[in-house]
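REQUEST FORM: STRUCTURE PREDICTION
Request ID: SP-0412
Submitted by: Lab K.M.
Chain count: 1
Length (residues): 153
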Amino acid sequence: MPYKTFWVLLVLSFLSACTDSTKTATLEDLHTREVRMPGGEKYRAEVVTSKFDMSRGMMFRDSLASDRGMLFIHGEPGLYAYWTYQVRIPLDLIWMDQNRLITEIVSNAQPCKNESASTCPKFGGNKRSLFVLELNAGMAAKHGLKPGDRIDF
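STATUS: Completed
RESULT:
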């Protein structure tokens, strides 16, 4: 068996063993994760891990479905400030530590309409965090989120 074929079959068999047999896996499942609020409410969040995708984030999007979000996973805990340059919708930004405990929340961060990214305000990044979750503005208040609450994913 050729070397590449072996590895492809190995990866495919591993992936098939990891799926729930009652649900058909989709391409979306590879790039999203279920996120559960402390009260049990669920969101489907795009998972972002690369520096390029993190810098793009929610830019150029005209809307975000009410049950959707974006989950940024940084490589290590740190102080991560965010901005809304070329983001078109208001967002709630929720920072979490390695235990998925909320460390900081910025509610209703408005899009930055400035011509230059360097003149846009920066949000958060005051507490060491590993994860940042972006949801539609108002969701943090709707779920009564506060520092110390745990978000599961």
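NOTES: The radius of gyration is 18 Å.
Reviewed by: T.R.
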